Amino acid sequence: MSFGAKMDSARPSNEAGAAVADNQSDLVILGGGSGGYAAALRAAELGKSVVLIERDKIGGTCLHRGCIPTKALLHAGEIADQARESAQFGVNATFEGIDMAGVHKYKDGVVNKNHKGLVGLIKSRGIQIVEGEGRLSSPKTVAVNDDTYTGANLILATGSYSRTLPGLELDGQRVIASEHALQLDHVPVSAIVLGGGVIGVEFASAWKSFGADVTIVEALPHLVPLEDEASSKLLERAFRRRGIAHKLGARFERVEHTDTGVRVHLEGGDTLEAELLLVAVGRGPTSADLGYEEQGITLDRGFVVVDEYCRTSVDGVYAVGDLIPTLQLAHVGFAEGILVAEHIAGLPVVPIDYAGVPRITYSAPEVASVGLTEAQAAEKIGAEKIKTVTYDLSGNGRSAILNAKGAVKLIAEVDGPVLGVHIVGERVGELIAEAQLIYNWEALPSEVAQLIHPHPTQSEAIGEAHLLMAGKPLHVHD
Fold first, then answer.
1. For residue 167, is it within any domain?
2. Cα–Cα distance between 126 and 17 in angstroms, integer?
3. Secondary structure element (H or E) that encloses residue 399, with its range
4. Residues with Cβ < 8 Å from 448, sequence gap 6 or more?
5. Phi, psi dihedrals of residue 150, rounded to the nearest 5°
6. Are residues 119 and 231 located together in one domain of the fold?
7. Is residue 465 part of a domain?
8. Residues 317 and 264 in one domain
9. Which end of the chain is more exposed for a tag (fewer CB within 10 A), N or C?
């Protein structure tokens, strides 16, 4: 039986770990997404008996409806762009179009392989999987249909859902959310993307690569508005070159259906028409009708309120992942799950520094960052106490080979450590782990400048930026 199938009777899977007597365990986890399963794996590793309750598929949004399938779409789009642009590299190729059935076969194959491996890993740790819809019946007890599961500790990890706007209903056909977009059986002729954050930008990028006419509508002044303004401007410039239109500072008013799709009305009287509208205005916490507030758990705008150790207002009850008001990233969920498991086991744990978490938008080009933006750094310590440099990827040999355009921007304290690293360019997400070490270890630019980076690689751009910050630029014009 598939681990993703919903069961009429939520009994533990026979293929999961050994049953726990009387449904009592050291730890019950409600939700099998990134944060939930990471906590389960670490707790089991530490010798705890664990029950993991999931209403859908182990792996959650990231594996099945988010990170993994969207990046597969983006990679398929990258291949399409390479086919179109191959002549500039002396390769004669013909681009004949997108076979969405083939794209889905590839995408779903990646997801299914990861899911199978994950379930096997969970089984190998002796974790009991319960399939069904769970709800708190007491502070540390989860009711699943006719059964209850009680833990010495409980972790809430019920994730998030696609938000929409008041009066804007998703029909799954012409007005869709990201989960619908992942299942489209054709490339839309045209699309309006409402929201210029990570989700909206990534789908806009993929659809453009597939051949769609795309317009992004963003209420704030820039795309990916949580990033450094310089990164946002570089992405906007790149999107203009690619033919991805974007209306910034534009507020949605209403949508109407037409014979051929949708007509979107913006405040001020402007209208846009397209085959479909993707609503990408963020994700909200899945906390309603689960018994949280009834059991004394404090919520704020639907998010579960926690302290630095992810403890809720109820003793012995924790919450992790998209359910709490931290960064909605799978790797943050992993880290929070591990932190909670170790805290429950009595190990010394260090609270997460969320500014030190790397962030990546997987568009073409990619946007990657860690640490503070220039505005945040100026607000924190004063504009006169920071300095910035920007290294253009045009000076990087590997980027020239790849025809990659973009830049690395560093923000540092005057005579102090690096406060932020911001990168825009093709595949630069693979560079941000080094930047994470630089930021989290409070490295001085002069210290990083001493490190020898391999040539020719895009990682040299990190080294070159720090050489520039340290006052000894190499491949940089005066």
1. no
2. 4
3. helix 397-402
4. 418, 438, 462, 463, 466, 470
5. -115, 135
6. no
7. yes
8. no
9. C
